[in-house]
Amino acid sequence: MFAALKSIGAYVPKKVLTNKDFEKMVDTSDEWIKKRTGIEKRHIAADNESTSDLAAKACEAAIVRSGLDKSQIDALICATISPDYLCMPSTACLVADKIGIKNIPSFDISAACSGFVYALAIAKSFIESKMFKNVLIVGAEKLSSIVDYTDRTTCVLFGDGAGAAVISSTDKKEEAIIDVKISSDGTYQDFLITPGCGSKNPCSKEVLENRLNYIKMKGNETFKLAVKTLTNDVLEIMKENNLSSEDIDYFIPHQANYRIIEAVRSKMNFPKEKTVLTVAKYGNTSAASIPMAMNDWYESGKLKKGDLMLLDTFGGGLTWGSALVHFAGENL
Ligand code: UT7
């Protein structure tokens, strides 16, 4: 029994914030943002749209494309760092309710930008252990709710969105998710952090006045570690599976910064045209970034059944991961 990625779906909120818009909000420029990150614009959820709304739309698209009926979904995993509610209920329970599924396990995982790859690892294990047949995974973020729009070092980077996939059992090896590797190192916990409004610094007037409820990032340190870790990670997963760059059809990296992607791509000696890039139009959407990029490639008609994708990701925790995944969906 193998686990296979049977379908992909995404949802991108309508409102767009361009780099020019940020020039009016903080001391920055379109030129700086493009040069240092590759980002040109990002989508922002409406006030009345929460993470579960974005996730539910992505999930519905993924279910339709999987050809399954909702009743066949055995479990739902939502990866997010911007849940609808801080503690409970989980965003996954809200998504299940919104798409009309109940009486299945639904839960959130918190692995920041690595959340989708972590969810993929869990879904794969559920299926290979024969516990479940069809697992719906979704990476969804309304990062605009935890971004400090007075901090130029972070606010220009992030956007909102959601991407979902149905992971199903198969007996066809050529459809299988070959390998998923996930890891973490809490030594670097302060590289990416929202310091306030958790149990360590419960929400208070002082916490809010000091803007501790928002994302803080040691950008440059994170950048350097990301390049090093991601490069080692992708080279290792290919080596362990006896694969080389020529065996991979598409490289779908976490979309945080064009320069990070470019550094890893060139160290892998991987062709530019087979590297999926959406950072320019979506910015960094954390757990949603890889499935949104995969969905873009799918909707553009480039991702075909049987293609082998290499995923890699890096984020707060610090967490990271990589995966070798066949696309087992139909081109509808
Ligand atoms: O998704 C999870 C993982 N996240 C990442 O992997 C993100 C990793 N980090 C990065 O992508 C980059 O480090 C950033 C894009 C965040 C920053 O780029 P950088 O080339 O590392 O810049 P820097 O932090 O070293 O800052 C360089 C200068 C500083 O000014 P001084 O001290 O040289 O005068 C910053 O204050 O750029 C300044 N700066 C800005 N200037 C204009 C920082 N943000 C901005 C801005 N506009 N938005």
Secondary-structure map with pairings?
Layout: E1 2-11, E2 15-18, H1 19-23, H2 30-37, E3 41-44, H3 51-66, E4 75-79, H4 91-99, E5 106-109, H5 115-128, E6 134-142, H6 152-155, E7 160-170, E8 177-184, E9 192-193, H7 205-209, E10 216-217, H8 219-240, E11 250-253, H9 258-268, H10 279-282, H11 289-299, E12 308-315, E13 319-326
Parallel strand pairs: 4-5, 4-6, 11-12
Antiparallel strand pairs: 1-7, 2-3, 6-7, 8-13, 9-10, 12-13
CATH superfamily descriptor of the largest domain:
Thiolase/Chalcone synthase
What structural category do the secondary elements indicate?
alpha/beta
Mean pLDDT: 97
Report the span from N to C terminus: 26 Å
CATH topology of the largest domain: Peroxisomal Thiolase, Chain A, domain 1
Low-confidence stretches: none
Give the domain tally.
Answer: 2
* Shape assignment: globular
- In the CATH hierarchy, the architecture of the largest domain is 3-Layer(aba) Sandwich
Quick one: how many beta strands? Answer: 13
Helical residue percent?
A: 25-40%
Number of H- or I-type helical stretches: 11
